[in-house]
Design goal:
By secondary structure, the chain is of the alpha+beta class. The protein contains eight helices and 19 strands. The strands form five sheets. It has an eight-stranded antiparallel beta barrel. Strands 2-3 form a two-stranded antiparallel sheet. Strands 4-5 form a two-stranded antiparallel sheet. Helix 7 packs antiparallel against helix 8. 45% of the residues are buried.
Length: 474
């Protein structure tokens, strides 16, 4: 290793999972396709806990051969190396971009680095210090309070170098490991092939308050449902009587999902807290435990109060297939390091899709399903019927039904405009996402205890997030 008319939720684009539907299915009450949705039962991605056989039948369990030529033994310029590797001209060595000025090294023996440098994740570099985001820190480090801090796993502290490990152990990826681990015989291209990762990305921390606007709309919607309208044209001495009538009658004209939407808006950060991502990683060997690769996301999933919504990027308008730029990687003492890379997608659209999909899913669970937010919120209150009901309750005020209907409609349209604008803004402001990782190699077919170090960015700045994953060879 993510609509002017708001027609983003065509039946081919959204998956509400109530009992296991994925990949283009709208789950009904029993997990079946909703009538008229034209959806098909999909093929569920292979579970990382049940790996498929490797694609090298002549050597089951062994590395999959790839046609990628190895990096040359020496180089004088970047074009001599297999892209995206670059040439460290001082050492005449093809290295990952992060090692262009430092070179490769052995973290156990401490071989390969100049005085003052540290061997971190198999790359020589100056000791990491200050940072503004995870992008500024090396593998196995996270940016905390402006300082690159080693990550020992799940956010805990870890070792920085061999001096912090017991005798006979070395520091690899923030953890002390027996030196014998580094001497286990293995093919130098054993990670080559196609892998499937099952990841959980805790993206909430990276949003940096971007959802404040949506959070504020819960109060605005509550005011509408409570009938707190500014009804123009009612004599002042009758305004309190009309206000009481409006408050008493309005809830009869609000659908059951109205109050649920208020609760959802109050908890929007919980909805956007985690992404589950199923991806494939195409990994090619360039020799000597060095690799290049690229990722494709096949499924992105959110969950809120037991409701799951998932999709592929190709089903999200304005997004398309979610892929990454090519990345470099290497195996160091049984740990696989994936260097920093960014997504090639307008992934703010994923947030837009998830918010809209979850809101319309709320309406589906209470009756009629709506495929866009505008249609959904137009039915929030039947303002004409409501106005007539108020008029019937007090016929002493001529034209009261029209006055109430106009006030109700104005408040409703203002709310619809605001919520769509907030979703548009959130989508537009998220323009950047980067990832890097470390993961333990269990054997030639599986990886576990993977850690993602990510950054969300855009016009709001940058925010850090982390994640976990496991992987199997396909």
């Amino acid at each position: 290793m993510n609509r002017v008319s708001r027609a983003f939720l065509s039946s081919a684009a959204v998956m509400l999972i109530t009992s296991g539907c994925v990949g283009g299915v709208i789950g009904g009450e029993q997990g079946a396709c909703v009538a008229g949705s034209n959806c098909q039962q999909p093929t569920t991605p292979t579970s990382p806990t049940n790996p498929t056989s490797p694609t090298n039948p002549s050597n089951p369990g062994g590395p999959v051969s790839t046609p990628t030529p190895p990096n040359p033994t020496t180089c004088s310029q970047d074009s001599d190396c297999t892209s995206p590797f670059v040439c460290n001209t001082a050492a005449s060595q093809c290295v990952p971009p992060t090692a262009k000025n430092g070179g490769l090294c052995d973290p156990i023996e401490g071989i390969g680095c100049k005085s003052g440098e540290q061997c971190i994740g198999g790359i020589c570099m100056n000791p990491p210090t200050t940072c503004q985001s995870n992008d500024d820190c090396p593998g196995a480090f996270i940016c905390q309070q402006g300082v690159c801090t080693v990550d020992g796993g799940n956010g805990g502290s870890g070792c920085k170098d061999n001096s912090q490990c017991p005798t006979g152990q070395g520091c690899v990826g923030g953890s002390c490991v027996p030196q014998a681990v580094c001497n286990v015989p293995h093919a130098p291209n054993r990670m080559a092939g196609v892998w499937q990762l099952d990841s959980t990305l805790k993206v909430r921390d990276g949003l940096k308050g971007l959802t404040k606007g949506l959070l504020s709309l819960g109060g605005a919607l509550q005011d509408i449902i409570d009938g707190k309208f500014n009804i123009k044209g009612v004599p002042s001495f009758l305004s309190s009587i009309v206000a009481a009538l409006v408050k008493d009658l309005i809830k009869q004209y609000v659908p059951p999902w109205g109050l649920q939407v208020i609760q959802w808006l109050a908890n929007v950060n919980d909805v956007l807290d985690e992404w589950r991502v199923i991806s494939t990683e195409s990994i090619q060997s360039v020799g000597n435990d060095q690799y290049k690769g690229a990722s494709t996301w096949h499924l992105v999933e959110f969950e809120y109060q037991g409701k799951k919504v998932s999709t592929s990027g190709t089903n999200v308008p304005g997004l398309g297939q979610i892929t990454t730029e090519p990345w470099t990687a290497r195996e160091v003492c049984g740990v696989f390091f994936i260097d920093k890379h960014s997504l090639k997608a307008k992934f703010g659209q994923i947030y837009r899709w998830a918010i809209e999909a979850m809101l319309t899913a709320i309406s589906c669970s209470n009756g009629q399903c709506y495929t866009n937010l505008n249609d959904m919120f137009q039915t929030l209150i039947d303002c004409r019927a409501f106005g007539n009901a108020v008029q019937s309750a007090d016929s002493t005020i001529p034209g009261l039904s029209s006055l109430v209907e106009a006030a109700c409609t104005a408040e409703k349209q203002n709310f619809i405009k605001k919520i769509i604008q907030e979703i548009d803004d959130l989508s537009a402001k998220l323009t950047y996402m980067s990832l890097r990782a470390k993961v333990n190699i269990i054997n030639n077919n599986s990886m576990s205890n993977g850690r993602w170090y990510g950054v969300l960015g855009g016009s709001f700045g940058k925010g850090n997030f982390e994640g976990s994953f496991q992987g199997v060879r396909k």
